[in-house]
Queue: 3 jobs
Job 1
Amino acid sequence: MITVLLAEDEAMLRGALGRLLDLEPDLTVIAQAADGDAAIAETARHTPDVVVMDLEMPGGPDGLEAAGRILAARPGTRIVLVTRHARPGVLTRALRVGVRGFVPKSRPASQLAQVIREVHGGRRHVDPDIAASALTLDCPLTERELDVLRLTREGLSVREIAARVHLAAGTVRNYLSSAMTKVGEPSRHAAARYAFERGWL
């Protein structure tokens, strides 16, 4: 029997998916979590074979950050991320931290069950549409531009970013302006959001 932890912030969806997965003869949902922090705690408590986790969970760590923390503590855990918005750029980040499966929420529960079996058996499953899109999505930003956008997402001011990366404030503004131009966004916050949604940060 493959034990599964299900992490999803929408209670109705979490309950329905849990019941559907429990109908599979070789799967059992042993725990559920409503956010990233709970997913981390419940994984430590129940040690499931596979964690099925929503990528976009509000409050605390999102699914990808929670996955990274879980895998740092328990490297043998198999993690499948599901997402409503299949942003292909996130795929690179997910694979980098050790996620084994990446599936849109639009797929039926029976297909998710098969993905759980595959990753439990040691294989990797990436949705074909996401994989195809990821191959054509190149990041135009430099490492320094990504650094200042990443700190922008953390809520730091230009002066605070400059102190963090050991650059002059004017230089940071230049990097931010360049990044905004490259992605076609009117503000540094919009540019940071654009880069995050494509998995570049």
Job 2
Amino acid sequence: MEVKKLYFPLNLNNIELPPLSMALGYFDGVHLGHQKVILEAKQQAAQGEIKSAVMTFDPHPSVILGKTDQHVQYITPLEEKIKLIEQLGIDYLFIVQFTPEFANLLPQEFIDQFIIELNVKHVVAGFDFSYGRMGKGTMETLPFHSRGQFTYSVVEKFTSDNEKVSSTRIRKYLKEGRTGELPHLLGRFYTTAGTVIHGDKRGRTIGFPTANCEINEEYIVPPVGVYAVRTLVNETWYHGVCNVGYKPTFNENGAKLSVEVHLFDFDQDIYGKNLQVEWRIFLRKEQKFSGISELVSQINTDKQNAINYFNKPQNFE
């Protein structure tokens, strides 16, 4: 997959692009609804014997259009989004830098410069996609703005349990700790990426060494509690439990939020290594224990509950 970053005003530097079938959208999460749009563009490309493409935007429009400075957390930060789109077998990914000037383009200007100029012959987007200044361009106005230069497909609302599959719904589930329900929306379990940093090393003194994972701040971190997780270390997946919280048994005044993963059947030095944590199911809330023995007993219970979970046939492994 060729990844091309585009800026306004558009300057292709004499790059000649082949005819394209292009999916349009922000695609945070690359969830099942997004996949339907992207794969429709891929199918249209195959039928027309042209190349498939996706156009997305960076950063999130709310960062630019919001009235105050905003730090947006993503279901899939840009690097992960790129990987997921590539896995769908797309030929080209265009990442448009979202700026106030770009946002101010009239709908016709957007189509002329960022669709027709890119040699797009077929456009695919969801029914609620909008473009141009204040979102005045819609899938209903697209035939007019196309100037007859391309055809288009509209992908209707994709639902699960009679509710639209959307990034907003996924964010809600994440913030409620409903990680076990996400495969029905994402088509996979939610994952985050981070780096193992030095912590207080208390876990190893009680027989449960943990990897203190500093998660990329662009990700949404599930709420405080204990989770069954799979973790990718050095290209190998391990089962484990993860504690998100403030370790109230040891910290009276509430320390910085930590994400600590205890991996089963694992004994390696991984400080500085990158970890990918796949969030499976929520096991329990974080709690304060009267002492070390009570804490150890609960961790053993958590570990056994996670083992029991992983021993069951999984739909998403």
Job 3
Amino acid sequence: MRVLRGPRDPRGRRADRIPVPARVLSGCLPGLVAVAALALCAGDEERAAGPDARSAVPGAAPRHTAPRPPVVPRSVWLGDDARAQPAPRYDDEVRAVFVHHTDTPNGYDCADVPAILRGIYTGQTGARDWDDIGYNFVVDRCGTVYEGRAGGIDRPVTGAHTQGFNHRTTGIAALGTFTAGVPVPDALTDAIAALAAWKLGPADTDPRGTVRLVSSNGLSRYAAGTTATLPAVAGHGEGYRTSCPGEALIARLPHIRELAARLQGRTG
């Protein structure tokens, strides 16, 4: 499969590395055997617009926050396998969450997840020549949260997970394949909800609401420069033409949103 490469930025980095459009209906991330059918990519310069799901009082402290869930740092699962890469990029805040699945096998032992993540990392940074893993976080079926992309667990790191909408968003990937009829573990959805509640708290974004984001390029569902109204906790397919995160996980998004809102202390 051919990869389209964007122009280099002032540091010499490629701005976009994306699969050709013919494969966009596939899952979010290659399996461990075949590193094909990725529908992820870093975009450039989207901007959020309007107050919508957040309480916009200039200078006011956020009213709805949630505690940070336990997160396994990337140093634990990646160790000495980390490749040299450019410095991370950051946004001013996280206003939305995109939920993905990794399109990898489901029957794993949770003790083997670090090795699985190293395989995913190698597939993206090696065969695909990305600068880092695309997702900000990965959650396994046992509910363990792993740091993905480098830059700091607590910081608004610009990911490479949702074409056109990487800025002011966090990408959370469920480890596995969650197509129609596949069971989705409660531990996994509960962990995604806890992570979403925490990351959206500083912006006071209601996980049940919507946000407005500006598409960075026409390879998303929206033409470059278009302001899109998207769920604050969205499936990958809301911003990009893909079946990710799978029908089974998409069906659990309402539960994830409601739980995340409760974790933020929202009752209305």
